[in-house]
Every structure is written in C-alpha cells, then in structure tokens.
C-alpha cells in the first residue's frame, strides 16, 4: 500500500495551480496519504533572452519540459507527473503511461484584446500574438489580412506584453486563464465550431510508470472516465498524422448520449490557405472503441491532406 506520493510538476504558476488541484482531490480521496510536491526546473521554459522564436521539441519547446518530468519518473525521483495534456506528445517513453485525468475544463480558446471584442472585429492589419501553429493557421484562414507573430512566455508575461502594446491581441487557452483566476481579461471566447481546440486542451493528465499498480489504485479514485475516453480518441487521431504541439492540427471528442462519441479533427497548412476536416460519430464504450474511432477519423483526415501540405508542415 502506497503511503507517500511524490508529485512532479513544473514551477510555473499555472503548473503549480493544476498540481494543487490534483493533490487536493487525492487528499480528499485518501486522507492518510502523505503527498510531497517536487518542483522540477524545466529548461524548456521560455526566457526573455531567447526572443520571440518558436522552439521545436528538440530545441527545447513544450516537449522539453515534459521530457524532464518524464526523466524524473523513469529514474524514480517522483511517482506521478502532472501535465497540461495538450503539451504531451502522443508517443510516450517506454514504461510510462498517461491513463488518469481530471474532468475536462473549458475547451475553448480565449481572445484577449484592448482594441476589439473578437477576432472578427480586429481592424485590418492588426498584429496578433500566439505560439501555436494551430491557432495561427485558423486565424490566417479566417482573417488573412491579419499579421500573426510568435509570442512566447507564461500567461502573465504574455498579458504584460499585450498591455505594453507589442501586439493588438493574443489568444490563450480559456482553461488556464480560469484556473489562474484571470477570466476577467477575456474579451470573448472562440467556440470549437470556429477553432477546434488542441488535442487534450483543458485536460490535466497524470503520468505514471506503467507497472506502478499501487499508484494507479490511488489515482482511480480521482480519474474522470469520460475525459479519459475522449482524450484517447483525440490522441489516436493526432498520432495517425504524426502530429505534435508544433503541428497545425486540432481534435475534439464529445459524448452526445450514452456511449455515443462525436470526434472532429482538422489539419491545415501553416499559412491557413488550405484546411481539411473530418468527423465521425460512433459508439465508444471501451478504450479499444475510443482508440479505433480516433484511428478512423485520423486516417480519413490524412486521406484528404495532399502530400505537399504534409511535407511543408513537417519541414
């Protein structure tokens, strides 16, 4: 029986807030459990000296700080790692799994600006900041008259840059803003019908060692099964297209009634000139069913995307 749990996290305000959410649920479910939060200093975190450059996973982007938490897990320094699931690559290191999730929060993207209430209301030629190629492609598809610039840093840093006038607007995940108590800065929400979210957006995922059954038993008490099923489908979809957080791809699974799941996905060119969509509704009452649905929609989507677009995104 596990008596102490070491919880690994990044040191950002949002990461610590999300980790506290996990720990609070664990304390409620297991009152005698001793919990230690281990803050891991991640070299993937953005630093001002790097400038506004979009980093690849290999060069130290979002995938880098996920890898550093995973190294702590593999080496036995922590028992679980807490992640924003949208940052976690679909291919996991051998021996590690993400199979426990908190209930999904607001899946929408949030538009923030002091000059307009929505993306559609931004004046022609406005500059909008984002570090997401998914958001970039959708913005340029809807508003090719806008200029999209790479915009990095934590939530507070990006909001400060916006206030300083470096850009006219930014787009961030609504879930993170709400968790930080910053809902008041949101000018408007962008519905999934207009901008499909990133795979796993709004989901807090818990990574463990595959064989650690005692830890899994603890986490079962706080796992949200509908969220687990939809994220399995979404991550299967993006894996078919070799997608990552650096790919202009989105996916969103929702349960309509009972075990009937609707899964939608899109893939785009980075300049937004070409966009492809696929969806399917099917019964997904098991892990295998959810995974199979994701594979089918992913394959249907991949069949629509010209090789030239796939190659241009990969390069």
Please, could you describe this protein's structure?
With 315 residues, the protein is an alpha/beta fold. The chain has three domains: 125 residues, Periplasmic binding protein-like II (D-Maltodextrin-Binding Protein, domain 2, 3-Layer(aba) Sandwich); 82 residues, D-Maltodextrin-Binding Protein, domain 2, CATH 3.40.190.10; 92 residues, Double Stranded RNA Binding Domain. It has nine helices and 13 strands. The protein has a five-stranded mixed sheet, sandwiched between helices. Strands 7-6-8-5-9 form a five-stranded mixed sheet, sandwiched between helices.
Summed up, what is this model?
By secondary structure, this protein is an alpha/beta fold. The chain has 3 domains: 125 residues, D-Maltodextrin-Binding Protein, domain 2, CATH 3.40.190.10; 82 residues, 3-Layer(aba) Sandwich (D-Maltodextrin-Binding Protein, domain 2); 92 residues, Porphobilinogen deaminase, C-terminal domain (Double Stranded RNA Binding Domain, 2-Layer Sandwich).
């Amino acid at each position: 029986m596990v008596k102490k749990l070491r919880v690994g996290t990044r040191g950002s305000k949002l990461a610590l807030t999300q980790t506290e959410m996990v720990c609070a649920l664990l304390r409620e479910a297991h009152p005698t459990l001793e919990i230690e939060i281990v803050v891991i200093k991640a070299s993937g975190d953005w630093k001002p000296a790097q400038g506004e450059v979009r980093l690849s996973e290999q060069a130290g982007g979002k995938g880098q700080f996920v890898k550093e938490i995973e190294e702590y897990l593999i080496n036995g320094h922590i028992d679980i790692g807490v992640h924003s699931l949208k940052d976690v690559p679909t291919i996991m290191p051998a021996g590690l799994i993400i199979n426990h999730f908190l209930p999904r929060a607001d899946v929408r993207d949030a538009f923030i600006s002091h000059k307009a209430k929505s993306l559609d209301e931004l004046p022609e030629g406005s500059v909008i900041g984002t570090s997401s190629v998914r958001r970039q492609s959708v913005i340029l598809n809807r508003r090719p008259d806008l200029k999209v610039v790479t915009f990095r840093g934590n939530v507070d840093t990006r909001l400060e840059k916006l206030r300083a006038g470096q850009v006219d607007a930014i787009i961030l995940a609504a879930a993170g803003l709400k968790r930080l108590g910053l809902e008041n800065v949101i000018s408007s929400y962008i519905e999934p019908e207009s901008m499909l979210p990133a795979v796993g957006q709004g989901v807090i995922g818990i990574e463990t060692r595959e064989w650690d059954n005692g830890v899994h038993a603890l986490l079962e008490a706080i796992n949200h099964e509908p969220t687990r099923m939809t994220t399995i489908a979404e991550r299967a979809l993006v894996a078919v297209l070799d997608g990552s957080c650096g790919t202009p791809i989105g996916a969103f699974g929702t349960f309509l009634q009972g075990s009937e799941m609707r899964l939608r996905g899109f893939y785009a060119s980075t300049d937004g000139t070409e966009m492809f969509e696929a969806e399917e509704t099917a019964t997904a009452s098991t892990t295998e069913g959810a995974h199979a649905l994701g594979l089918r929609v992913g394959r249907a989507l991949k069949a629509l995307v010209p090789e030239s677009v796939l190659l241009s995104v990969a390069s």
